[in-house]
Amino acid sequence: MTSVALFKQDGSQNGTVDLNADIFGIEPNENAMYEAIIRQRAAMRQGTRATKNRSAVSGGGKKPWRQKGTGRARTGSIREPHWRGGGIVFGPATKSFNFRLPRKVRQLAVKSALSEKVADEKLVAVDSLSFDAPKTKEFAQAMDSLKAGKKTLVVVSDDDKNAVLSGRNLAGMTVVTPAEMNILNLVDSEKMIITKSALSQVEEVLA
Fold first, then answer.
1. How far apart (Å, rounded) are the C-alpha atoms in residues 158 and 174?
2. Do 135 and 197 belong together in one domain?
């Protein structure tokens, strides 16, 4: 069992919290992390580049001239690829760059990133981040008390809607729920702040 210090919203320490060593204390698997990052970035690609082939270009419905007797080469449409304005042969087409990665490998990647955060002392556990209403100023004050870095990932439970709304406009701050936490926002952050309730949800999913 791994443990880290537990803080209050005002930055004062409130004991410690135990972490599941199978999630937060494993030997990071760099290959799994690499594959998961490549997969997520590939899935983000739009893949909307395309060119018009012979069937997509407009015009060319009528045969330009009769088959024989003109002295010209025979042709059936002015939209054939060798004509100016004709269709493109073997041009780029719309495609998806996404590829499948086994669920266990994706989970291993997230566990590895979380374990790295704990090992580097970049994970901060907090009792809760509760706000009566969406208040960016109050959220910023809480982050200052918890010594958040320039690029901080804040993970709150699904019930902390005000925390999500309060932090989404702060530069360098990414506020997500456990379901939205992924390998990319984990490795892209310099520090991670997670509430106690969100911690339980993460352990429940990854256990």
1. 15
2. yes
